[in-house]
Amino acid sequence: MRDLTAPALLDGLTLLVSQAAAEILRIAGGGLAAREKSDATPVTAADEASEAMLLEGLARLLPGVDVISEEAAARAAPPEPGETFILVDPLDGTREIVAGRDEYTINVAIIHRGRPVAGLLAAPARALIWLGVPGRTSECLRLRPGEGPGQARERKVIRARSFGRHPVALVSRSHLDPRTESFLSRWPDIEQRACGSALKFGLLAQGEADLYPRLAQTSEWDIAAGDAILTAAGGLVATPDGHPLLYGGNRGQFHIPAFIAWGDAAAARRA
């Protein structure tokens, strides 16, 4: 079996998401051409261009591996994935980029036997890429979109922080639901910070917050890359009853009913 976390492959994936980030910024500078999909969610020319670039690059880097991507899944039912597959959100946080905010990401995760073995998040407007390999390392690279990992201005290992007396929760800017608000009420002094997209996982992984609950349905491509990065940084992404998330096993639906992302895995076990 090929090494899904080989350094050369991870470098190739990092360059690929960096190139997709540059393409998103190029299109955003000239007009996003936003429209509404059949499920009432927005899509733009940047989503579609990023997806096309990612699909071409992934076919080259990991030939024969199934790719499940958000926009392709919206056009046609995705295939039943094999033991190894890739989850892609080519532009997570479309509402944010349309609104002119910088809280949007590119998400790429390699899944093997239901769990992410590597994940990448790029934040194009922030010139950041997070890379996580559970059991090995979680890193943040500062590099200009379009450049490769060897050109990073900064590359550092990151760790999530311990759960403190005055925790900070990251909550969805667009999808905060009553169950999530009820869950957070168990900490009277908690600070809530609204943030869009999978950017929240990168912030958790580098110790800027303590948890991110989402007790409503979301899609696997929204969280799998962040799961890998946060897990590699010492955190945990789990079901509300504490079980690790499994991907690709829900009969082609690629939905997660609810999850809680914890910066401190020990705090999750105590909760």
Summary tags:
271 residues; alpha+beta; Fructose-1,6-Bisphosphatase, Chain A, domain 1; D-Maltodextrin-Binding Protein, domain 2; 2 domains; seven-stranded mixed β-sheet; three-stranded antiparallel β-sheet; 28% strand; globular
Description:
This protein is an alpha+beta fold. The protein has 2 domains: 151 residues, Fructose-1,6-Bisphosphatase, subunit A, domain 1 (Fructose-1,6-Bisphosphatase, Chain A, domain 1, 2-Layer Sandwich), CATH 3.30.540; 103 residues, D-Maltodextrin-Binding Protein, domain 2 (3-Layer(aba) Sandwich). The chain is built from 8 helices and 16 strands. Strands 3-4-5-6-7-8-9 form a 7-stranded mixed β-sheet, sandwiched between helices. Helix 1 packs antiparallel against helix 2 and helix 6 runs parallel beside helix 7. The model has no long low-confidence stretch (mean pLDDT 94).
Lay out the secondary structure.
Elements: H1 7-30, E1 35-36, E2 42-43, H2 45-61, E3 66-69, H3 70-75, E4 84-92, H4 94-98, E5 105-112, E6 115-123, E7 128-133, E8 137-142, E9 154-157, E10 168-172, H5 178-184, E11 191-195, H6 199-205, E12 211-214, E13 218-219, H7 220-232, E14 236-238, E15 255-256, E16 259-262, H8 265-270
Parallel strand pairs: 3-4, 10-11
Antiparallel strand pairs: 1-2, 4-5, 5-6, 6-7, 7-8, 8-9, 12-16, 13-15, 14-16
Class inferred from helices and paired strands: alpha+beta
CATH first level of the largest domain:
Alpha Beta
How many helical elements?
Answer: 8
Uncertain spans, ≥5 residues at pLDDT below 50? none
Estimate what percentage of residues fall within beta strands: 25-35%
Name given to the CATH homologous superfamily of the largest domain? Fructose-1,6-Bisphosphatase, subunit A, domain 1
- Strand line-up in the sheet with most strands: 3-4-5-6-7-8-9
Rg computed from alpha carbons, rounded to a whole number of angstroms? 17 Å
The CATH topology of the largest domain comes to Fructose-1,6-Bisphosphatase, Chain A, domain 1
How far from one another are the termini? Answer: 38 Å
Number of domains: 2
Question: Would you count the extended β strands for me?
Answer: 16
The oligomeric status of these chains comes to single chain
**Mean pLDDT score:** 94
What is the H-and-E element order?
HEEHEHEHEEEEEEHEHEEHEEEH
